[in-house]
Write a structure and sequence with these properties.
transmembrane, 80% helix, mainly alpha, transmembrane helix, 0% strand, membrane, MFS_trans_sf
Length: 164
């Protein structure tokens, strides 16, 4: 294995970018659940819709706080282990969100969702930029991420239907 890459030697060059895109799916799903239908969610959980809005505000607040400590946290891990850790935690959070309907548990999970959702997505953008190897790599990668954000805003119906 090469020491300067996150990929094994046997991974073909053409497969690296699609693998990064597929690796974004837990991040995409984790953040799309945030924008799910608050009226349906509040009736399902038997809570007020303002409480669901509070959960959204809590998650966005943890995004901002996490941005302040993100660089320091990323310095402690190699990229491979960081991706593995963040993806594993995101999958666990998705699982817990899908099996519980207790508001207090979801309150804690939404807080963690804000932290780890941002931490998982923050590593993939520089990796995508590095894989594009073009003069306009930053523009393409940021456009890709903006497209993902737009899809995430509208993709909540798709991801919440997978659960049923």
């Amino acid at each position: 294995m090469q020491h300067n890459t996150v990929y094994h030697q046997w991974v073909p060059q053409w497969l690296k970018l699609p693998l990064l895109v597929l690796a974004l799916f837990p991040h995409l799903m984790l953040l799309s659940i945030l924008h799910s239908n608050s009226a349906f969610t509040s009736s399902f959980m038997d809570v007020d819709s303002d409480d669901i809005q509070y959960l959204m505000i809590l998650m966005y607040g943890t995004f901002v706080v996490t941005l302040l400590v993100l660089q320091r946290f990323m310095a402690y891990f190699s990229v491979k282990y960081y991706i593995l850790l963040m993806s594993s935690i995101s999958v666990i959070i998705l699982y817990v969100l899908s099996v519980t309907n207790n508001y207090q548990v979801i309150l804690v999970i939404r807080f963690l969702e804000g932290i780890f959702g941002l931490m998982e997505g923050a590593i993939f953008l520089p990796l995508i930029i590095a894989e594009l190897k073009t003069k306009h790599a930053k523009v393409i990668a940021y456009s890709f991420y903006v497209y993902y954000y737009a899809y995430r805003r509208n993709g909540n119906n798709f991801f919440t239907e997978i659960k049923h």
